[in-house]
């Protein structure tokens, strides 16, 4: 395809989605795109999450692009900095920096029906006109701060895992960690032996399965670099293993959940000797209902003498520490908030105004929905990455992201080749798709407990109810009949 300066494409966000989309555009011979990134560097979640122990809980051979496989991962589950290095390498290899506007936040997007273009406004009040927008703004980006009375009055250091403050030295300090989710299970064992005391405040215990992390020796890495076929085999096997195990994590099945519970309870017995402590750490909800946690050393950390599990509810944070419902004041020099993220899909990332002046927030007032998680009726030529109901609970999110990139690319090629003004998904097609998704949700495990997966009304607009392979198949082909197509 020819270089077309008259076909500007905007990519919003330079995380995995935006970078992957940019690489695939270049591979398709399309260079007329600009990547807007509000931060000063690329990387999204892997740039921002730098807390001690931060790593991916999906094996790196699968948690990397299929079109940029990496034989050099130093361990089975790469650390956040290694993933960030990988992304920086992909950016350099494809010379994406020349397409990038860093420190540029998009604050509004508005569609113009007459010209079939989107006008993006930046925080500097600049505007940029695009024929197509790929929105890769991420789903779990901004930290969620708990609403606990007195939080702002704490006199020690307070750090959120998603925005770690490396200037604070926790060595020999009395540290309190609030939260026991995926971030906490990584940070707790990483800081346990350096602090003087560590109190972990648990509201809900989670199911933890073994990680079996290991280093990849140099010899193996050299072998994989020399024979990439074996790297592809490793990826293939890890992917299909996660798919095979998937139903244990996502189906509402007593028998399958029992398998998950059994593995997790075995893990607990291996790591914790004290039956009373085990009891406190044992969840009372169905396996898979909240995100399953992956760790070899989180539970074992509570065996250390300086580590204590506090399961009495927090009533307030005071100047000196954390007060719990039994009246105890747990004094602390520093509090680590491992309390997660604001779910991006609750609303549009910024005002997005589509056809007829309708805001995306209005279209999503009863929850975020999109056709195949990517296109929303009334918002033509707008492709969402990691959109509604495209998150996995059991495998690499990048499998879904790559499917979305390839789908958007097909649409872009069609728009360019046929010089279309716009492609807008038909409302009835979108509705039918989402009715199907919500019907299938009834057979999934996620409605039985509280988690970030669910909206306030209990509906799941986050996860895909099924196998990744099925999502890939469903999105593989663009069906023009699903779209209302307008010509110039
Ligand atoms: O956040 P979370 P996270 N008082 O929301 C507790 C991804 N991720 O950052 O369970 C007391 O899971 C809250 O308690 P409860 C992954 O998708 C991926 O750990 O609500 N406690 C919970 O224990 C993951 O699912 C990796 O009762 C309070 C914790 O804080 C997502 O990010 C690594 C509280 C929050 O857990 C979020 O994980 C890390 C309060 N007021 C994260 N408010 C990978 O490896 C909240 N909590 C890929």
Descriptive overview:
- By secondary structure, this protein is α/β, with parallel strands linked by helices.
- It folds into 2 domains: 9-142 and 342-487, FAD/NAD(P)-binding domain; 144-215 and 220-338, FAD/NAD(P)-binding domain (3-Layer(bba) Sandwich), CATH 3.50.50.
- Helices cover 30% and strands 19% of the residues.
- A 5-stranded parallel beta sheet has the order 3-2-1-7-21, covered by helices on one side.
- It is globular, with a radius of gyration of 23 Å.
- It starts with 8 loop residues before the first strand and ends with a strand.
- The model has no long low-confidence stretch (mean pLDDT 96).
- The structure holds 3-acetylpyridine adenine dinucleotide.
- 3-acetylpyridine adenine dinucleotide binds next to loops.
Structural class: alpha/beta
Gap from first CA to last CA: 21 Å
Report the principal-axis shape: globular
CATH topology of the largest domain: FAD/NAD(P)-binding domain
CATH class division of the largest domain: Alpha Beta
Task: Summarize the biggest pleated sheet.
Answer: 5 strands, parallel
* CATH homologous superfamily identity of the largest domain: FAD/NAD(P)-binding domain
Poorly predicted segments: none
Order of strands in the sheet with most strands: 3-2-1-7-21
Record field, number of beta strands = 23
Level-2 CATH architecture of the largest domain: 3-Layer(bba) Sandwich
Please state roughly what percent of the residues sit in beta strands, choosing from under 5%, 5-15%, 15-25%, 25-35%, 35-45% or over 45%. 15-25%
Radius of gyration: 23 Å
Number of helices: 13
Question: What is the count of structural domains?
Answer: 2
Average pLDDT score: 96
């Amino acid at each position: 395809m020819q270089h077309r300066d008259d076909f500007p494409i905007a990519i919003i966000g330079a995380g995995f989605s935006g970078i992957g989309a940019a690489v695939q555009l270049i591979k398709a011979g399309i260079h007329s795109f600009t990547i807007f990134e509000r931060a000063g560097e690329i990387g999204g979640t892997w740039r921002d999450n730098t807390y001690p122990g931060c790593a991916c809980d999906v094996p790196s051979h699968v948690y990397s692009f299929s079109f940029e496989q990496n034989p050099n991962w130093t361990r089975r589950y790469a650390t956040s900095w290694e993933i960030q290095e990988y992304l920086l390498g992909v950016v350099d290899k494809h010379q994406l920096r020349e397409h990038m506007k860093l420190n540029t936040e998009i604050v509004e997007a508005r569609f113009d029906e007459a010209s079939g273009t989107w006008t993006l406004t930046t925080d500097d009040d600049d505007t940029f006109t695009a024929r197509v927008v790929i929105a890769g703004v991420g789903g779990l980006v901004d930290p969620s701060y708990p609403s606990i009375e007195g939080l702002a009055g704490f006199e020690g250091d307070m750090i959120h895992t998603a925005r770690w403050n490396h200037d604070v030295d926790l060595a020999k300090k009395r540290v309190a960690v609030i939260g026991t989710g995926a971030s906490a299970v990584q940070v707790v064992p990483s800081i346990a032996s350096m602090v003087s005391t560590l109190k972990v405040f648990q509201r809900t215990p989670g199911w933890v399965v073994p990680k079996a992390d290991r280093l990849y020796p140099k010899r193996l890495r050299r072998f994989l670099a020399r024979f990439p076929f074996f790297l592809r085999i490793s990826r293939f096997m890890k992917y299909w293993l996660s798919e095979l195990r998937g139903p244990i994590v996502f189906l509402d099945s007593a028998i399958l959940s029992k398998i998950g519970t059994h593995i997790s309870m075995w893990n607990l017995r291996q790591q914790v000797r004290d039956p009373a402590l085990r009891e406190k750490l044992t969840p009372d909800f169905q396996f898979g209902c909240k995100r399953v946690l992956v760790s070899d050393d989180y539970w074992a950390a509570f065996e250390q003498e300086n580590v204590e599990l506090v399961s009495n509810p927090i009533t307030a944070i005071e100047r000196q520490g954390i007060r719990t419902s039994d009246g105890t004041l747990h004094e602390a020099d520093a509090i680590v908030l491992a309390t997660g993220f604001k779910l991006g899909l609750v609303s549009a990332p910024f005002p997005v105004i589509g056809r007829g002046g309708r805001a995306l927030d209005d279209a999503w007032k009863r929850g975020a929905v999109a056709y195949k998680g990517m296109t929303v009726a009334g918002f033509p030529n707008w492709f969402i990455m990691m959109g509604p109901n495209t998150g996995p609970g059991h495998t690499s999110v990048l499998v879904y992201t790559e499917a979305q990139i390839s789908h958007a690319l097909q649409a872009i090629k069609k728009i360019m080749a046929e010089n279309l003004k716009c492609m807008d998904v038909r409302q009835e097609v979108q509705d039918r798709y989402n009715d199907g998704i919500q019907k299938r949700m009834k057979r999934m495990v996620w409605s039985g407990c509280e988690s970030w997966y669910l909206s306030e009304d209990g509906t799941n607009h986050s996860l895909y109810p099924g196998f990744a392979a099925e999502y890939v198949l469903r999105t593989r082909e663009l069906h023009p009949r699903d779209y209302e197509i307008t010509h110039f």
